[in-house]
Model the fold of this input.
Amino acid sequence: EAAAARLAVSELRAALDRLARAEWARRDRLQSLALEERSWKKREEQSLAERALYAERRAALEAEGRALAERPAAIGEESARLGARLAERSGNRERAQAALGRGEEAFAASLDALRVAEEALAETRERRARAKALCESAESALSRVAREIDERFAGAPDPLAGGGDESLPEESEVKARLERLTQARAALGAVNLAALGESAEVASEIARLEREQGELAAAIQRLRRGIRTIEEEGARRLSAAFASVNTHFAAIFARLFAGGRAHLEMVAEEDPLAPGLEIMASPPGKRLQALSLLSGGEQALTALALLFAVFLTNPAPVCVLDEVEAALDDANVVRFCDLVEEIAGAAGTRFLVVTHNPLTMARVDRLYGVTMLERGVSRLLSVDLARAARLRQTA
Done:
């Protein structure tokens, strides 16, 4: 009986152990089910939050789509307006160039007329000097004859013809006097009866040339004032553009190099419209020096900073960049891509980048390439990376 009782007790203990194990298994299962229930509730909450987020993104994308659908018309209007302004300014420039050409032609013609007038004036002065010399020579000869008459006949030439027969000299004396007078008259030369008329014509020509000279001088002064005004306006615009480019260049240089400083300097400033340009740069950890003393990669990055500075001073709707980051390492290529994306977002410029760098190709919105699936047959391949990224986010 004791053995049977022990056997029964052992069986009951075994059954009790099985029941205890079953109870622990059920408790573990209940705990597992509770954990799963909390996990599913958490996933449900996350799903609801993601659903609300996707709904907001969908609404934002629809609004962006509507805004983008309206942009072509606005861009078309802006393009038409800019085209009209460009045509107007082109017309103004052509008219200004035509006016400048006419002014230069008038100035050249004025110079030619002034040279001809100066030559005519010199010739007239020479003729006047010759006439004055001839007149002085005639007056001297007349005075000499009067003195000879006074010496020989003791009287003036005019009263000699009024005397009687008793006062007349001998025939030999008269013949000798006649011969002397004939020789003296021959020495005087031919009398120019048109000298007074020619003198009046020369005086009139001189007055006309002096008036033309005054008009030419006034025209030259006006032309010089116009040229000075144009030079001052050109110098002012050049200074303003240089200041803007220098400001953008310093900011972009510090952005691309993650520090440092740089600026532009004008050389040979005595001619403000044709100065030289010196690029001074100081990458992080280096002293300020000229561009030619930097390394190849630093020169390329500095040139990119100057290129974007000029572009930001006068931005355009489209910009083409051809292998500009070829000399840069990966870190600088990333900075270059960040700068291009920032400028594209701020200025609304579409960048067309020709490149073989995989980092640059991974950052673009749309990728175009040429592939050769068959030997000798090229094919254009286009991949919309921005759309693929959006599809991946919504998947």
